[in-house]
Structures are given as structure tokens and as C-alpha cells.
Design a protein that fits this description.
Layout (H helix, E strand, L loop, with lengths): L9 H23 L4 H14 L9 H10 L3 E3 L10 E3 L1 H18 L2 H8 L9 E7 L11 H12 L10 E5 L5 E8 L12 H18 L4 E7 L3 E4 L16 H14 L4 E8 L5 E3 L5 E3 L6 H16 L4 E5 L4 H14 L2 E4 L5 H16 L2
Parallel strand pairs: 5-6, 5-8, 8-11, 11-12
Antiparallel strand pairs: 1-2, 3-4, 6-7, 9-10
Length: about 375
Amino acid sequence: MEFRYARFDVELERLKEVLANLERVFNELLLLTDGDVEQALGHLERVGKRYGWLNEDFTIDDFRRWLERRGVVQVRTAGGDRGGAAALGARGERGLRQQSLETIFEGLAADARGEHRTRAPGVGGERTSETRPWRFGDPTHAIDFNASMRNALARSGEFELAPDDLEVFESEHNTSCATVLLLDISHSMVLYGEDRITPAKRVALALCELIKSRYPKDALHVVLFGDEAWEVPLAELPYVGAGPYHTNTRDGLRRAREILRRAKSANKQILMITDGKPSALTEDDGRIYKNSMGLDRRVVNKTLEEAGQCRRLGIPITTFMLTQDPGLVEFVERFTEENRGRAFYSSASDISSFVLVDYVRNRRRRGG
């Protein structure tokens, strides 16, 4: 066996640690600033100086150039979408999703982590001829040793395997699931200084990464609902923010039902994250009826009717409430009974774990 030694560079290792810390904080600030790169960098400069990560030897401009070289951020031209300001690149969006997923799994209890991990080995049906890079948790029987050894030989000229050399066979999944994630972006998500929209966005980003990496045949759609409801591309998730809106839950459910009606998957579900009482309703003529007090009888009845429509189409709704107001709890119980779905109550700090654990459990129960 051959051992290779290299000189340990203290300064280089320190710089790597500083860069890792800065990028992690930068991603958190991106969530808080609705994907505004310039604003996030401004906050990061103050944080970096406070903790000694940034100084005369390594400034925020050095960090910005490092992000640009790696494709994490890119500067748009004056005629581009964001008028010349720095914006997230594809690598930055992917990194934000991955960190969101890692953050959520770090917060899960041991039994919850174990419940999810058991999904990886033995998943899928027929093995295909296609391979992909090995990831932590992949079963050893899926390793393509021929391709792995070729990678090692190309890398070092020797048959000495390293983790990055490993390739695993892809499997053909037998089932798929179409999911619509409903995000409440009404004013109550940021009311009284309590930030509930940031953890809700983290959930959406983590679900996106979970599906892309573990369940590639699953479909995930994101629908925002305030005064009205509309679908947004997954790439726009970092830029989502709460607005001065009422809570038109019925319109959100109706838009989700329309999306799932067109889905080819046999398994369909709606995950709804909200903290507010239904307070708006779209009339047949397009006008929006609003009652800021919430739980207006007319609004409630129409919302319950929509929950029943979803039930008749075989679409279960899992509701994640970010508050436990007694009046709201009563409504959610009626709503859940009408749909025969499920409901969870939590604080904003716990919502991430609930959504991801429940997504995996529900997918397995329904055909994953």
C-alpha cells in the first residue's frame, strides 16, 4: 500500500474554514432577504467583520469574486432580468437547496432520520445501464465497480479507489408521486415581527432537493397563495416573500387541484403550510371577497367545499399549521375531516422536520 504525504498548510485550512462559514451564513441571509444577493452580501460584511472572518487580508469583495468564479453568483447585464445587480447562479440555487435539506435533517430526531434513511437501500425496481456518482447512503450492491476502477485509473494512474471515484447503477422506480406544496404568503406570515415565511421557504427548497436527488420521477409544484393563488417555478423559490395579502386558501387549493388533475402520476397529494385563517374568496366573476377578521362563514364553507372536491379526486391534503389559535384549530379539524387528510400543529422552528418526515412517510404509504 502506498501512502502519500503533503505539507499541512495552516493558512490554507483556515481560509477553507472561513469560506465555508461565510457561504453557510450567506445562504441563510439569502433566505431572509428573499434571494437579494447584494443585500445578503451587505449583511454578511457586517457579520464577517464581527466574527473576524473578514479583514484587510480577505474582504467581502474577495468573497464576492470567489462566489463569481464558482458560479454561485453571477452579474447580470444591464438588459438582464435584474438590471446589472448580482444574482444567484445555477450553482448557487443548488447550494441553497442542499443546505436547506442538510439543515432540516440536522434538526430531526434520531428515529426520524432513521425512518427516512431506510428508504434509500433497495428502492426502485429494475437496474438500468445508467450510472451516477455515489452519494452517502447508497447501497454497496449498487456500485458499478468497473466504472469506479476506471475513474480511479484516470485520476491517479493507479487502482486506488477514492470516494469520488465511485459510481452506482441507477434503478428504475416503479411508482411516482405528484405533490403540490401550497405556501401561504399572506401578511400574517411576517406579522408582529415573527418570521414564518423563511422556514416555510426552507421547507420548499429542501423538498425540491430531496425529490431531485432521491425521487427523480416525482413531480413537485409550488403554489403561492395570498389574495389569489399562482404557481411559481422552483428556480424562483429563493426570491419568494410575504406580501400585504389576505389568505385565499380556497383559491390555492383550487389551483393545486387543477395542476394535479393533469398529472400522470397515480399518487397525488397536497402539502399546505399556513398560519392564517381563510380570509378571502375569489368570486365567480373574478372579484375577490375579503374579510380581514377571518373565519367568515361564507369563506369557510367554500373552502370546505374545495377540500371535499380534492377528496373525491383522491387527493389527500396534509396541513401544517404554524400556530395553535383555538378558533383556527377548530376550522382545521373540520377541514381535515372533510378531506380525510391530516393536520400537524407546530411552531415555525419545528415545521421543517414535520414536512420532510411526513413527505417521506406519505410517499412510502401511498406507493413509494
